[in-house]
Model the fold of this input.
Amino acid sequence: MSTNEIARGEEVHSHRDASVQGSGVGVEVAVLSDVGRTRSANEDSFGYDLELGLFVVCDGMGGMAAGEVASRAAVDQLMLHYEELRSSEASLEEQVREAILRANRDVWQTSRENHHLRGMGTTLVAACVQGNHIVIGNVGDSRAYFLREGSCVQVTRDHSYVAEQIARGATGQAQLALSSLRQWITRAVGVEKKVQPDMFLAEVKVGDIVLLASDGLTRYAEAEVIAQRLSGMTSLAEACRRLVDLALEGGAEDNITCLLLRIL
Done:
C-alpha cells in the first residue's frame, strides 16, 4: 500500500495490517492535515508505503506555491530512491540517508531549472521500519516523537536558529525574545546542493507509536502534552484528530500535519 499526498483537508488517511518488507512485522498508519487558521494554502506533504515500511512528512517553504512543489517533490523522490536502494547491501540507516541525499539533490536541481522556484525548500522527517528496527532521519524542524507505554520522547533535534541558540545556553527572557524567529530554519531539503540529515536508530516492539509532525503541530505541543492527549487512545485516526485539534485550539498559525504509525 503506497500513498503520496499533498496534505490537505480534514480526511484521515488510515491503513493497517501490511507486512513490512516480508519481515512479518505489521504497521498501522493514520495521517491528518489541516491548513490552519491563517494560511490560505497547505504547503505540507506526506507519503507512506506500508510494504516498504517508509513514512515521511515535509513542510515546504517558498513563494508562489514553490513550497508546495518542494514538499511534494521531496516526498516523491525520497520514496522513489529508497525503493531503488532497499535491495542494496547498505545498512537500513545508510539506505535512508542516501535516499534523503538524493531527494535533496533532485529538489535543488528542480529549483535551479525554474527561476520561479528559486529558493524553494522543505523540511523532511522520515521513518523506516524493518523488522524490529526503525530508522528516523530529519532535516529542518519537522519532528519525530516516540511513544511507548504512556510516555513520549522527542527523537529529532530541530535544525533552527532558535533551537541552536537554546542549545548554546539561551534561557528566560532570551528565549522569549527568540520566539519571533522560530520559523528560521538552518537546514532544509533543496536549498543547497548538499545537505546533512540527522539519523536515529532504535528497536521497536508491538504497541510502540511514532509521530511525525510539521511544526504547525509541535509549536503547540511538547512531548508531555502529546502523551497526555493520546493517553488511553486506541484509534490512530482519532489520535490524529486530537493532535490537530490541539494546534487549532492554540491558534494554528501554520499548516498542521500529523502522521502516526503503530507497530502491530
